[in-house]
Amino acid sequence: MQLTAIIERERAEYVSICPELDIASQGATIEKARDNLQEAIELFFETADSSEIATRLHDEVFVTRLEVAVG
């Protein structure tokens, strides 16, 4: 299964989010944040029952950039 990982810097660490499942993790590097998120997602699928997976899993997530006027 392929899912989305959004990773952003927050102070000295990186935060990673999977919007399809609303699961987040973190790490000292981009790679560690990604690996930790992957592990968290895999643990979720190992432990969650099918009804929780069905409730949380969003099958359509769109990531785009917006241009907004500031000031």
Written account of the structure:
The protein is of the alpha+beta class and 71 residues long. It has one domain (6-56). The protein has helices at 30-47, 50-56; strands at 6-10, 13-18, 23-27. The model has no long low-confidence stretch (mean pLDDT 96). This is Type II toxin-antitoxin system HicB family antitoxin. It comes from Candidatus Accumulibacter phosphatis. InterPro entries: TA_system_antitoxin, TTHA1013/TTHA0281-like.
N-C termini distance: 42 Å
Strand order of the largest sheet: 1-2-3
What is the residue-averaged pLDDT? 96
Overall SS class: alpha+beta
The total of helices stands at: 2
Radius of gyration computed on alpha carbons: 14 Å
Element string (H = helix, E = strand)? EEEHH
Domains counted in the coordinates: how many?
Answer: 1
Q: Classify the oligomer.
A: single chain
Instruction: Tell me the overall shape.
Output: flat
What is the strand tally? 3
Report the sheet with the most strands, covering strand number, pairing sense and barrel closure: 3 strands, antiparallel
The low-confidence parts are: none
